[in-house]
Amino acid sequence: MSVYIHSVGMTKFGNSENNSLKDLMLAACREALDQANGLKIDAVYVGNFMGGSLANQEILGAIVANDLGLGYIPTAKLEGACASGGIAFRQGVLGILSGEYENVLVVGAEKMKHASTAEVTQVINSAMDQTTNEKYAGLTFPGFFGVTANRYFYETGASKAHLAMIALKNRENALNNPLAQFQKPTTIEEILNARIITDPLGLFDCSPITDGAAAVVLSSKPSDIKILASAQASGPTMMQDATDLLSLSAIRLSGRQAYEKAGIGPQDIDVVEIHDCFSMTEMIAIEELGFFPKLEGWLAIEQGKTRVNGEKPVNTSGGLLSRGHPIGATGIAQIYQLVHQLRGNAPNQLEKLPRLALAQNLGGTGAYSVVHILERV
Amino acid sequence: MSVYIHSVGMTKFGNSENNSLKDLMLAACREALDQANGLKIDAVYVGNFMGGSLANQEILGAIVANDLGLGYIPTAKLEGACASGGIAFRQGVLGILSGEYENVLVVGAEKMKHASTAEVTQVINSAMDQTTNEKYAGLTFPGFFGVTANRYFYETGASKAHLAMIALKNRENALNNPLAQFQKPTTIEEILNARIITDPLGLFDCSPITDGAAAVVLSSKPSDIKILASAQASGPTMMQDATDLLSLSAIRLSGRQAYEKAGIGPQDIDVVEIHDCFSMTEMIAIEELGFFPKLEGWLAIEQGKTRVNGEKPVNTSGGLLSRGHPIGATGIAQIYQLVHQLRGNAPNQLEKLPRLALAQNLGGTGAYSVVHILERV
Questions:
Q1: ipTM of this predicted complex?
Q2: Is the whole-model pTM more than 0.90?
Q3: Of B78, B133, B269, B372, whose CB count within 10 A is highest?
Q4: Does the distance separating the beta carbons of A131 and B22 come in below 8 Å?
Q5: A58, B81: Cβ pair inside 8 Å?
């Protein structure tokens, strides 16, 4: 049996001060359902990370089923830090493969902008093991990826300029994406001179705080987009357990499993959305997914290979850095962009219509990685 | 394909001030894994409700996989309010039915006692829709079930004494369960005279705040306990949307679906664990699950039919009321008790070894209900 994508929906990402978490969820779901050709939904999976902590709102699955009049169907929320959306998507796939459901609605959503940066940072840190010395020593996510960036510079010829090239590419892509959070043009100079968050990462190297939601309707009934592979891996929850600071093993493992299931290799992928929570994370991911050799990602960046219509276009949506990163929504927003690319109507649509697309969604400091490969059939 | 239960584990429920949420999870998992005959775990599902809000700890799935050395396998946390455990269990079942996993570890856990009652109440209210007038009017969970109790009294000949009989039965059962939170004997008089929480519900009619965890190993490989049916339904998220105050339609629907899948009826069930978050909830559930006719549950209670070795033994563990209710752990703790009943070594072991057991786990004010039927094979 195979699982297919029928339709997608997505809100504008950014600051939605007049919309509740529920409003955002329902808007994305309605758009997806309107285009689902009347498929009767059998279950709802929600990807969400901080609804409980920041909005005091759980039971999101039941709320979606009730408010959209889907009937009293099974629903659940999935949490896996920033990979919550990708994990919810995968549960939808497994739910259909189990034979229990024919049609599943998956929605990812987050509302964050109403909280202070300190509050958001506190909640995001719940994606680290709170009982470890790393937490007590004050490690944060920018801290983690700042260390990996410095190590990467030490091991290679790369510099802060290469991270800036990633940030600039994604910002330029976002300029053409009306749903992206950031639409203001920038320059390499502005990026390089921006205030430092954690050395060497500056403001533009870090994904923003974002409100938003994205939804997708999956079915066992064939459509034009088939899910060729779903794979998930976990990784070390602590930096001290990583055998190589420049490897996010969960990305590598989930990628390898996805390629095996799909019977293809990284060279076959036409368009990619990866989890650039930091510019440095995109650098690691393009290597771990096998698009470029280990420690040579920076050369590919320099040569423009990951730009729209480059050899391996990465984050044509603008990525987390510029489309925005409403935690639970991100994994589904990646699918949203890839579905549009495969259908030929995406922002930054590739000149040659892609056939194979890959989405990679990361959680924690590599504690979770989910990879999905989509095929236009 | 069928799914089987190989082993279970559970911590003492109560006040675990010296154990973190992680400690509790790992202890329950270790017990289950030690008895799983070396099955290699392919995925971990965690049921948890308030780890983010009360312990600032998410990524529980990755923590379990890492700390128990299970390898870098897929993991996720499931949330569905007080049904989080049952929903996680069901995802484990679907994961195996999908063909993606052979052996799955499911753990439910919650740490609540370190927080104030006000904090816990605030977080529990996130299991209501925060955007509705009911929330702004101040509806709480004891309020909801207090109203249903008064209505039940109005419609039937039942009184507060019948609720007290439920509370007393579950307390007496807990006295024989060394893992139960409450081990102090009580009397009908003490229960009836206890301070009122929400009229007519007194202290003994309400489940307590509890720390604890429970775990189970599922497999496609046959064992002595087969999962005959897994069913889940949602229900109204708001009291104002209920067509009948004395019906929790999600319980009725999930029960009916489970019986259909199992090809049996309520009369065939030998032993039951249901979600007695309040004594009144047990009253409604024994009717909605078809064990007794609508509005006649109180007569069955009066006649002792739900007692150990009665016609339909309910909550031989002590139930949520006296075993305790660590939210995310409850659905798995029900399975723990039923597995022991089916194997003949439970607290309050039935005289006649049961063959069919039913677990019912509720979330919100009926927003979620999950029913599993287990068979000794």
A1: 0.97
A2: yes
A3: B78
A4: yes
A5: yes
